[in-house]
Amino acid sequence: MTAFLAVEGLAKQWAHTVTVGPVSFDIARGEIVALLGPSGSGKTTILRLLAGFETPDAGRIVVEGDEVSRMPPARRRFGMVFQHYALFPHLDVGENVAFGLRGLADPGRKAGEALKLVDLAGFERRKVQELSGGQQQRVALARALAPEPRVLLLDEPLSNLDPALRERTRRELRGLIQRVGITTLFVTHEQEEAFDLGDRVAVLNAGRLEQLGTPDELYERPASLFVATFVGRANVLRGPAARAFGGRDGEVVVVRPERLRFTDAGYPGVVRERRYTGPAAFFLVEGDDGARFEVQAEPDAARVGERVYVAASRMIGFAEPAP
Amino acid sequence: MTRKQVGELALTALLAWLVLYPIAILAIDAADLDAIRAFVRRPGEWGALWASFWISVASVVLAAAVGVPLAFLFEWLEFPGRRTLGSLIALPAVLPPFVGVIAFLFLYGESGFVARAVQALFGLEQSPWRLQGAGAILLVHTYSMYVYFYLFTRAGLAKLDWSMLEAAQALGAGRWTTLRRVTLPLIRPSLAGATLLVFMTALGSFSAPYVFGGGFRVMTTQIVASKLNGDLELATVETIVLALVAVGGLALLRRGEGDDVLVALGKGTAPRRRPIRQAGVRGLATAAGWLLALLLLLPHLTLGLVSLVPYGTWTTETLPPVVSLVNYERLFAEPARLEPLLNSWWMAAVSAGAAVALALAAGELLRRRSPAAWRHPIEALLALPWALPGTVFAIALAATFGVHSPLTLRWVLVGTVAILPLAYLVRNLPVTGRAILAGYRQIDPALEEAAASLGAGRWAAFRRVTLPLLKPALAAGGSLAFVAALGDFVTSIVLYTYDNRPISIEIMSSLRVSELGIAAAFGVILMLASALVLGVGARR
Q: What is the CATH number of the domain that holds A305?
């Protein structure tokens, strides 16, 4: 893989205690990468460092062999879509989209093309306040894409939309980015969004990059206990229960609920709760040694209070992390 | 040191020189034992100090008594003409203080319309009253300052979450209990803000005590009298005492304001106005409302009428027998009359422009999220002149810039045309600074980042994003400063020279030679210009 965008040892210290990085990763041309992590994990800081709104204490950012780490944002040619879109309220839709085209030939036509790209052809003279949330998001996207940036950065692109709209918008957004073929990084705290939209996902925790990989890799082969538990549902087991599912002594074992099933002989326990989700149900099982974990199974697989035996088809073992 | 830090240091130093330095010079000058002894020994001084204090407290009480009920009336009840009346009721605000005082003189004074009418009605030999002393001052203060209570209370009531009042009623509280235990505590910040504003304005008030005081002296008039008598040392001590009272009052009232922020937890729903149902009561309320509006408009109308009376044509009649535009013609035809108009105009424009420029510089420097060590000094310096009466600043500037000593950054500006614009600038820093800094706070920092990510450099982002978004704040800050400078009397009377005498000083000279018509015409022009500028400033 030839790196289109390379981040090398990028670090930023906020207070004495809060540090982001050092973080290193490479992104190929046209790739879509999600920065996923809980709040405070440093994902937004990394995006802002890339955009140039913050200056790094250490490290380099290189695009197409061009080092931009200390270049002001105005000269980086990175397009950015802000969480709340940051549309200029004193300008109409067309003027917003043409903002970054000043000095270029025929900005009006280029803005029109960008609007057509996001399905808002003919919206030039509308006021931004009159648009719906989804339309505002598309104007912000058109504005960021119009100057033909090298990299597109999106800060929580879907968080401002209502849930019903999110899934459709996600598909449209992915289609659009792929059509334009632009290298894209976006920040999200929702795993589903990261998996759906990203070719690869970078999982961040406490300012550190835990793992960068495809969704399958993250889910099936997590590099750390944090990734295993942050991505998808996971039962974390220690002691006898861990050993019962195949863990070695002193190992922490992570088992996905769908990898557990009720059998005739296995780890014994009692069903304490049942949560019905339609196609399946989650059964909360309390093992005889007190361990509690979730089993995903057919809705009628067991009843509350029933004695069951559980077996695992696949587990992931980790060395007990240092406290 | 970064460029930004150099900028912050330079701005802080400049503001300190403008705002703090003159006060420091004044404090040093006041450390004169003989003058302090003279001040302490004279009963007149203590009398003036006490008068300043109790007049200010009484002004707060009276202004609240008028303004608060009116605010409730206009915010909570619906009756014909509510909208029009609601804005008419803020009219005293467009009357510059000195012009308002003159209008009161023409209306309720010894030979004003009302006195003449009463005299004619009862066939009296003499005028039925003299408009003088504490009562007259309080009348003018109430008229011009209730507006603060009215506007602040209305703003507070408009923000009130109606569901809280409904919750109180659902919990069994009657109307009176709800008012006392929920409504008033919730709008307390508004009431405290208005109290502070009225107290400080009344303490610094000069025009009303100057014109109506007679033998009744307050600190501001006492200071100017000492200065005019040539007793500079005593004036300095008096000024420092007034400054201390002002700062003490400010500190006390700020503490009373409390710092508990009362924020509604839910989204506030604006109260629905209750229409007055009974036709009789509604009619009565409407009539009372219009009568009130007329009462409030009378000073403006009086000023207009008196400005149409040619010199020497109105003697004993109740209403002037001759009206013409001759006063206005003279105003613009005689160079000596036109001059003050032009003076006030350019000095107000220059000082407002400078105040806007300084506030913009402060806004640009304070806006960045990086650790702004100078944030508090710059904001405090911008706000400081508000804490001190105009007279204090006038005397302080006179003391500081009456001496030639370039090494201590003092030049002789007193007696030159530069001193008045400088004084106006210092006085207007708080209002302009507040408006423009508030404007900056309303701009989402992401907008400038968006501009940067679209290739706009710092200057381009400022010109294409920040300035257009700041337009309302700039218009408001600039027009308020302009209007205040245009109508200024307090600082002008201490610092003016013949060459740059402003309108207010010319009004006073005209009154002195009994050219009431000319004085009123000046007042009308000042009033219209203020209304025009404020109207334009408020629109965009």
A: 2.40.50.140
